[in-house]
Amino acid sequence: MTTTGKTRAELTRLVEEAIREQPGCETARVPALQRLDVRNGRNWEIPHVILGDSLISDIDRAVMSVQRRLGREFHLIDDDATAAPEAAGAPRIVSDRS
Predict the structure, then answer these.
(1) Which of 40, 55, 78, 96 is the most buried (most CB within 10 A)?
(2) Which burial class, exposed, middle or buried, applies to 29 when counting CB atoms under 10 A from its CB (0-12, 13-18, 19+)?
(3) Could you tell me if 93 and 59 are in contact, meaning their C-beta atoms sit under 8 angstroms apart?
(4) Measuring CA to CA, how many Å separate 34 from each of 23, 69, 94?
């Protein structure tokens, strides 16, 4: 399967838009994506999501759905390949509520 290459900025924008389209996630923000050190498949992950007024359960569901769907369509091509990848796992969710 062939995917389309996107820069980190382009893919981050697409991911944030896709997450905000999910039910209950209209105020969520994705500050950046992170490169994964893999040879095949999705080579990026969503390490941090800022909640806004969204619930953690809504964000968790949205992140899994968006990573699965957009991971089939796009791969990360920016030249920031020297950054050390962190271990893959659940995204860290940050609340900006006071």
Answers:
(1) 78
(2) middle
(3) yes
(4) 24, 17, 16
pLDDT-above-90 percentage for the chain: 71
Residue stretches of the chain with pLDDT short of 50 = 80-88, 98
Residue 39, pLDDT score: 81
**Alpha carbons 68 and 87: distance in angstroms, whole number:** 18
Torsion of CA 36, 39, 40, 44, to 10 degrees: 10
Other CB atoms within a 10 A radius of the CB of residue 1 amount to 6
How far the first Cα of the chain sits from its last, in Å, is 44
Looking only at the bridges linking them, the beta strands covering 34-35 and 44-45 are: antiparallel
